[in-house]
Amino acid sequence: MRTRVLSLDDLTSLDHAAWQRLADRAVSPNAYLDPRFLAGVRHGFSESAPLRLIVAEHAGSWQGVLAVTTTPVHPRLPWRATTTGGDFMTSHADRHHPLLDRDHPTLAARALLDGMREAGLPRLVQLQHLPSTGPVADAIGAATSAARMPLVDRRRSWAPVALRHTVLSHSAPLGDEPLPLLLGHLTRDDARNTRRHLRGIARELGAPAQVDPVRDDPALEDEFIALQHAGWKGRTETGGASLRQHPNREHWFRQTVAAFRARGDLIGLRLAAGDHTLWIGYLLRSGDTWFKFLDAYAEQFRPFSPGTLGRLAAITHVFTQTDAPLFDPGFDARYTVGARLFPDRREQVDVVVATGGVWPSAVVRTWPWVRRARTGATSGRAQTQELAAAAGRGAQFAARRPTTTRAL
Length: 408
Known about the structure:
The chain is 39% helix and 25% strand. Strands 1, 2, 3, 4, 5, 6, 7, 8, 9, 10, 11, 12 and 13 form a 13-stranded mixed sheet that branches. The chain starts with a strand and ends in an 8-residue tail after the last helix. The protein is of the alpha+beta class. Strand 11 (289-297), helix 10 and strand 12 form a beta-alpha-beta unit.
């Protein structure tokens, strides 16, 4: 299995096709590493310029892919690390785990790690937002163990998701009310508030809330962009992040939506009451999983929580109109308002791996000291000295002891 490092600007049509086949059959889907999402970001986001793809392939078939960049280990030290984070991925993609072919995930994971080292990338590697259990975790653990690459946990967090069996097992069959929603997985208070908001919409707007699924009408994009711009994202004082204010990003959005729509992997949902649009959201399918992409709500109807109603409508649509086992909203549990709508939690872990070299191995082995230095146990020059001293202690340790590996 050979490995290549590719710029997003250098991808050929054959590369795109091979990448898409891998995304379709990945052992753990990730829409944010799907080529329809990621391949076009260079023209929409300047912060994506440092991104590189590490590709493991065999006989022209992509077996694994990971998006990486490099980052300083510490502002006062000259060393850099390879990371799956970086400005673009951290801001726009909260799922960073690699795409690994379902038939050879461990071999693909090993090839990706070896490929970073062979390409001359920094040998201290930060793999962010990996599922802590499941086939990707097993593959990374087995690959680092077989290669005797030291690995240590850096941070753990929880990502909200919705599993089909959880949502359906808690909900009664949908009735014939104007907006039937799956609410059984919610707390009693949240379910009661949802019904109260629906009654308020019908009373104040003179029509019940309804959801219109839109798969094949590009005109929805115009309505979505206008709705997003009319809200807080369209105001300069709050950041000016709407697509309309950034024409290159708007082009990327339209391109992404069109690419997923072309293969039947896009659902646009419009929540409306009479002539009033309350919320619009987009869902993307990669592999067998649906992911939330972008959504926006009409701020004048905020008292009725249209964002919450729209996301509940998305959950309901995924589990009543598709056979997907999982719906991933693409954010972490710190977003408490959205997270409470999703009944399941998947633990994510950031790990640090040394793919070779004395200094990277030393940093991994002495991570408790490094963590102290990075989180402000000391400051300024003393902080820098402590980090360097930690690496020095680890280098002496590595010289005396054989390499050991800690599984994920």
